[in-house]
Write a sequence for this structure.
């Protein structure tokens, strides 16, 4: 299946801004994050098609996945 | 009282009162600068320091700012700029909270941190700065780490709270305390070239949605650090949001949060699910 993955802030470094990617069916956000080499504890807000999602959320064909880093400094 | 009001009316020119006259009134009538400022504003006299705000903030609105109490939780990168701007705006009462002292690695971004202040309490630096800028502002230092145990007392009587903390668990405790006390919370966070701003109005549970379920203590700032421009920008947006909330004017952020990326020069307003 095909998922549009959008990365934000420093997650783009040495990766991409947005890309259509092919995955086997029944993949989770966490598995995509891991495949991209992003440390899971650095992941902040996640959206699937503009709705809040979690690392354990599953993707479907045609979904748009947006991944923002966790920002906590002051 | 009428004597003081007459004095202020006599000294004001085009509705503006100079700082020298405000200070003279305080001295002559044995009142604080804060009391004189309140008397002036309630009688439609604007301290001259605010004259360049007049087309953005009216004298009536200035009285509302003067009558407000804002708690700034954290006096570091974000908190320093927030305190600076709130003092210049003439917020009547500030509560500044931070347990830490200034260290050399704060000099790259924290406006309250100077070479002379190294090893001093951050809240002492805040008090000194506010007093130097605008001594009509009452500033109450709390040299403690904010948590859900002392939070109810710290935020007692506060109109709006500003989140300028640097750990996620502390932010969650602040958000919970604000929910309990029905206090609007203006949130900001920074990491490297990136920052976020959000408002949590009572019942919205915005921070729960932003950080909910996160066990993390900190975010990507541990790896990216914080250069000077990011806290200045994010703090300024937080202050603009605070002013809109205090005055009930403009369009504050609600049910969404701002993600600002200075590196790729992108601003995203990200909708949140409603609380």
């Amino acid at each position: 299946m095909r998922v549009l993955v959008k990365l934000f802030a420093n997650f783009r470094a040495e990766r991409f801004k947005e890309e259509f990617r092919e995955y086997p069916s029944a993949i989770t956000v966490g598995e995509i994050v891991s495949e991209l080499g992003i440390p899971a504890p650095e992941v902040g807000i996640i959206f699937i098609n503009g709705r809040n999602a979690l690392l354990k959320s599953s993707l479907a064909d045609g979904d748009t996945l947006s991944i923002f880093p966790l920002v906590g400094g002051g | 009282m009428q004597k003081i009001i007459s004095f202020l009316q006599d000294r004001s020119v085009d509705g503006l009162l100079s700082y020298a006259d405000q200070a003279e009134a305080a001295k002559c009538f044995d009142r604080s600068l804060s009391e004189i400022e309140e008397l002036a504003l309630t009688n439609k006299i604007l301290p001259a320091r605010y004259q360049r705000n007049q087309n953005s903030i009216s004298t009536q609105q200035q009285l509302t700012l003067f009558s407000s109490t804002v708690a700034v939780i954290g006096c570091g990168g974000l908190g320093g700029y927030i305190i600076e701007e709130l003092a210049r705006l003439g917020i009547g009462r500030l509560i500044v909270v931070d347990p830490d002292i200034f260290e050399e690695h704060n000099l790259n971004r924290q406006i309250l941190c100077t070479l002379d202040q190294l090893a001093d309490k951050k809240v002492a630096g805040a008090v000194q700065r506010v007093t130097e800028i605008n001594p009509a502002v009452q500033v109450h230092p709390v040299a403690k780490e904010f948590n859900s145990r002392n939070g109810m007392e710290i935020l007692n009587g506060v109109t709006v709270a500003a989140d300028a903390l640097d750990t996620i668990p502390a932010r969650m405790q602040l958000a919970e305390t604000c929910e309990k006390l029905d206090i609007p919370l203006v949130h900001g966070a920074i990491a490297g070239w990136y920052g976020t701003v959000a408002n949590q109005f009572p019942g919205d549970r915005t921070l729960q949605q932003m950080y909910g379920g996160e066990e993390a203590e900190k975010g990507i700032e541990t790896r990216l650090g914080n250069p000077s421009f990011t806290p200045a920008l994010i703090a300024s947006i937080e202050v603009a949001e605070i002013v809109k909330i205090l005055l009930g004017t403009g369009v504050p952020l609600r049910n969404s949060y701002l993600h600002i990326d200075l590196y790729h020069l992108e601003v995203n307003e990200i909708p949140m699910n409603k609380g």
In short: Chain A has a mean pLDDT of 95. Chain A has one domain: 2-69. Strands of chain A lie at 2-7, 18-22, 43-48, 51-53, 64-69.
